[in-house]
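Work Package 3 (structural annotation) set out to generate three-dimensional models for the target panel prioritized at the project kickoff. During this period the team completed the workflow that converts sequence records into C-alpha cells, so that structures can be stored uniformly alongside our sequence database. As a representative example, we reproduce one entry of 313 residues exactly as it appears in the project archive.
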Amino acid sequence: MPDRLPPLTALRAFEAASRLMSFQAAASELAVTPAALSFQIRQLEDHLGVKLFNRLNRAVELTEHGRLIQPGIHDAFEQIQRTMRQFRRRQQTNVLTIAAGPAFTAKWLSPRLYRFIALNPGIDARISASVGKSDLQLDDIDVAIRFGPGVYPGHHSVRLMDEFVTPMCSPVLVEGPDAIRTPDDLANHTLIHDDTHLGVFMLKNWADWLEAAGAKNVDPSRSGLHFNVADHAVDAAIGGGGVVLGRTCLAEPDIRAGRLVTPFDLKLKADYSFFVICLESRKDEPAIAAFRKWIFDEVAGATAPVAVRGPAV
C-alpha cells in the first residue's frame, strides 16, 4: 500500500516558509494569516512525526529533517508551476512571445516585425528583450533568437544567420582630407568599441581586425569610446563619433539606409551565429511554425549585397 501523502496545503506552506525563511513572508505570499500558516506546518510535522523548523525569537531555521525534505518539495512545486505555465501558454494559441537580445531586437527584429503581423493578423506577437538567456521551460517564452554555438539540448535549434565584424562609420568620414582609405588611416580617427559581449561570449576585436588587415600604425589599445550596449556603439558611429568595429547583422539596416558605410571588404566571422530555438515538443505549433517560416523567409529576402564604399583591403 503506498504511503499516504501529507496535505497539499501543508506541503505548500512548508515550501514557501523554507524558501523565504520567514513565516510572516510565506503567509503574505500565500494570502493566509501567519497563524494559519503555522498550523499548516504543524500539520506536516505531525504527519511526518518530526520537527521541521526551529522557531527562534524573530526568525526560523530548518532542522536537519527540514533540510532533508526541502529540495525535493521545492522542486515538486517548481515542476507544478512549470507545467501550469506551459498549459496556459498552449491554451493561448494566438499569443506568441519572442525572446531576443536588446540590440538584435532594436536593430534587426523590431523594424521588420510589422511584416510578420501583416502576414499573421491573428497572432498577438510580444517581444521580450533581455541580455539574459530565457528558459523556455520556465519562462513565458515561446521562441527565442540566440547568438551562440547552436547546441541547446531539448530544443529545436536552426541557424538563422552568421555574424561578422568590420569597421563602420558615418559617410562623412570617407570624404575630405582625412578620409578613410586604408586601414592605417584609422589612426586619425576615434575607435569605437562594442563591449557588449565581454564576459558573455568571444567576439573579434579591433586588435584582431587590424592585425588581419595588416595595419602598421594603428594602436587598438589607445583611448577611444567603449559601449556596453551594441546599438549605442552603432549610433555613436552614425553620429560621426568615430569608427566602430560593428556587427554586420545588427548594423545592416543602417548600412542599407546609408547612415553607415563599411570602408573595407575585410570582415571577420564570429565564432557564434544566430539561432532560432524553441522546445522540441512545440516546434510544430501553428504560431511558432509561422514565426519560424517568416523569419527564415525574411533573411532569405535580405541577402542582396550591401553597397560598400571605399577601396577593398
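The radius of gyration is 27 Å.
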